[in-house]
Amino acid sequence: MREVLLVAGEASGDLHAAAVVGALRRIAPELVIAGVGGARMRAAGATLLEDIAEHAVMGFGDVVMQIPRHLRLLRRLRERMRDGDVGLVVLVDYPGFNLRVAAAAHAAGISVLYYITPKVWAWRAGRLADMRRTITRAAVILPFEEAYLLEHGVPATYVGNPLLDRAGALPTRAEARATLGLGAEPVLALFPGSRRGELANHLDAFVATARELERRIPAVRVIVGVAPGMHIDSARCPYQLVEGSSYTVWRAADAALVKSGTSTLEAAIADCPLIVAYHISRINYAIVRRLVKGISYVGLVNLVVDRSVAPEFIQNAMQSIPMANALEPLLAHDSAQRLAMLAELARVREALGDAGAAERVAGMALEMLA
């Protein structure tokens, strides 16, 4: 049997790729699956050609140092595809590298299934030409991506969002609070980011907002979601830190201040009212403004339904007093603002559809292999 070659390039990709490997193993246990990934992919049953832990980078200098390694890996994958044993290439996120793999697969006459495609609807729309040429099918995880890619000639199918697969196992509010040692007091969660640069840009403003809310609501408890591999100095952030248990934090909280990104969808899935904040350097923001066209919001929770579900505080608007003003009513269980947002979050969850993204991707892969 010809193999499925699966390529993921970072920790989040390894997580989603492992779910696909697991689904393929359940449906077709005899399938040969090899690829580039990490410990999760290996545990799910894939043979690793290269471990992504060796490609971890922390900054621009590290990225430059990794270029020779990436070029060697690309050559190795090209050779494997030319040998004739690869029946399908499945790519997961990581567009800078995976679009090159897609081109190599196309040149070798191998079908390409791309799961979690580049966000060309937001920036670098020039990649669409390459995607049209090299991607056989795209499995997208945001509802609006399907229509956008189809409009631009890329065969796309919305498979659901993989975050939904966690929804069935969420703790209750009482369970989450017991786990974190919390009582009945109002709880504010902070999610300042999952990268060092994001923490540098957001943490102080997030803490200042929490302090302002403590002044207004003395009983409020503040907890901070810490992404895996990140360190937050207690001198800068004198609150309870919770590492690697984001959904427990979401479920325990009455409201959250969240850095723009995937976390905003996690909040919607966990039914936690939120506001969104984001700040980058002035130069980077100027570049982004030139690259991003036609996007009204930055938070995915707003983009999914194309309306303002959660207030956004971007760049200079990321100030403690206005953010505290927006969060204060969300911490009150009977406030009109909180009830209205909970209704909007339910609509976001409805727009995302049902769980089972990995199973749908596995089904597409087996169809393409047949």
Describe the structure.
The structure is a single chain. The protein is α/β, with parallel strands linked by helices. It has two domains: 3-160 and 355-369, Glycogen Phosphorylase B (Rossmann fold), CATH 3.40.50; 167-352, Glycogen Phosphorylase B (Rossmann fold), CATH 3.40.50. It is 46% helix and 17% strand. It has helices spanning 11-27, 39-44, 60-82, 95-107, 127-134, 143-151, 173-180, 196-216, 246-252, 263-269, 282-291, 300-303, 320-327, 336-352, 357-369, and strands spanning 3-8, 33-37, 47-51, 86-92, 112-115, 137-140, 156-158, 187-191, 221-226, 240-243, 255-259, 274-278, 312-314. The strands form two sheets. Strands 3-2-1-4-5-6-7 form a seven-stranded parallel sheet, sandwiched between helices. Helix 1 (11-27) crosses helix 15, helix 3 runs parallel beside helix 4 and helix 7 (173-180) packs across helix 9 (246-252). The chain is elongated, with a radius of gyration of 21 Å. The N and C termini lie close together (11 Å).
Residue fraction in strands = 15-25%
- Report on the biggest sheet: 7 strands, parallel
- Amino-to-carboxy terminus distance: 11 Å
CATH superfamily of the largest domain: Glycogen Phosphorylase B
In the sheet with the most strands, the strands line up as 3-2-1-4-5-6-7
- CATH topology name of the largest domain: Rossmann fold
Which architecture of the largest domain does the CATH hierarchy give at level 2?
3-Layer(aba) Sandwich
Shape: elongated
Mean pLDDT reading: 91
CATH class of the largest domain: Alpha Beta
Structurally, the number of domains stands at 2
CA gyration radius, whole angstroms: 21 Å
Number of helices: 15
Portion in helices: 40-55%
DSSP summary, beta strand count? 13
Secondary structure category: alpha/beta
